[in-house]
């Protein structure tokens, strides 16, 4: 564990140097512990693959106090008792009309479209980080048989809800945006809603599974085709 200054009212805590479920579990447990020990002195916590950005209220506390309390919280961690992941199921309509790269990915991997869908929906993923845009959860790891590099030329417009693969990561685009990931389907669940509580249906450390749904069910759940 290392802790460094990241600004006048921020510290960054590093809990490992690799992407793995074990490191992610430490990040998840440390996030909870830090939130508890800093309480009202805390403005925001941003967990990632192996680190946590800690933003505190400089009018209430200072670097030295936060540094000391964060060390105390992390040193006392019982990760084994804090790593039970919340399970979230996200429906996906997998089809060429919903995922522009689905057939190309199947052809590249010498599999049928159905095999690609089965492999993607048959894997349980961990939320390693949330970034790029609010609600954009980086999930891993994709079965190596359907792992795919980013597109050579990113699209200018990826629809909201697009389910995509890049290398051994997968994600759901929370809003219309540019993007270079391989699109394989659409999810009707809103990944970020500023009016909702919570604003996102997933959090770092959660366990995610995708469930294939029919075209009709996709529309029943509020899905829209771009």
What report would you give on this structure?
Helix content is 23%, strand content 30%. With 226 residues, the chain is an alpha+beta fold. It has two domains: 80 residues, Gyrase A, domain 2 (2-Layer Sandwich), CATH 3.30.1360.40; 134 residues, Cyclophilin-like (Cyclophilin, Beta Barrel), CATH 2.40.100.10. The longest helix has 18 residues. 33% of the residues are buried.
Number of beta strands: 13
What fraction, in percent, of the residue positions are helical?
10-25%
The level 1 CATH classification of the largest domain is Mainly Beta
β-strand percent reads: 25-35%
**Helix vs. strand class:** alpha+beta
Regions with pLDDT < 50 over 5+ consecutive residues?
none
Question: For the residues shown, what is the average pLDDT?
Answer: 91
Profile the largest sheet.
7 strands, mixed
Index terms:
Cyclophilin; 2 domains; elongated; alpha+beta; 13 strands; four-stranded antiparallel beta sheet
In short:
The chain has 226 residues and is of the alpha+beta class. 23% of the residues lie in helices and 30% in strands.
Please outline the helices and strands:
Blueprint lengths: L1 E6 L2 E5 L6 H18 L3 E6 L3 E6 L6 H13 L11 E6 L9 H7 L4 H9 L2 E7 L6 E4 L14 E4 L3 E5 L2 E4 L4 E3 L2 E5 L20 E6 L2 H6 L6
Parallel strand pairs: 5-13
Antiparallel strand pairs: 1-2, 2-4, 3-4, 6-7, 6-13, 7-10, 8-11, 9-10, 9-12
Helix pairs in contact: 1-2
């Amino acid at each position: 564990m290392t802790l460094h200054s990241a600004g006048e009212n921020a510290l960054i805590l590093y809990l490992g140097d690799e992407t793995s479920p074990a490191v992610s579990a430490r990040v998840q447990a440390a996030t909870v512990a830090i939130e508890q020990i800093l309480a009202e002195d805390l403005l925001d916590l941003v967990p990632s693959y192996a680190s946590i950005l800690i933003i505190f209220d400089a009018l209430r506390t200072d670097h030295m106090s936060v540094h000391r309390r964060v060390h105390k919280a992390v040193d006392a961690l019982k990760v084994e008792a804090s790593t039970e992941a919340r399970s979230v199921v996200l429906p996906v309509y997998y089809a060429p009309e919903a995922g522009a790269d689905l057939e190309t990915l199947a052809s590249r991997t010498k599999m049928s479209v159905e095999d690609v869908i089965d492999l993607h929906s048959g894997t349980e993923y961990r939320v390693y980080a949330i970034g790029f845009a609010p609600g954009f959860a980086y999930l891993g790891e994709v079965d190596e048989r359907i792992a795919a590099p980013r597109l050579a030329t990113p699209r200018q417009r990826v629809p909201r809800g697009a389910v995509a693969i890049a290398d051994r990561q997968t994600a759901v685009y929370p809003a219309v945006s540019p993007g270079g990931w391989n699109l394989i389907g659409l999810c009707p669940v809103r990944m970020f809603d500023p009016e909702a509580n919570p604003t996102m249906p997933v959090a770092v450390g959660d366990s995610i599974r995708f469930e294939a749904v029919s075209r009709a069910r996709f529309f029943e759940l509020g899905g829209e085709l771009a």
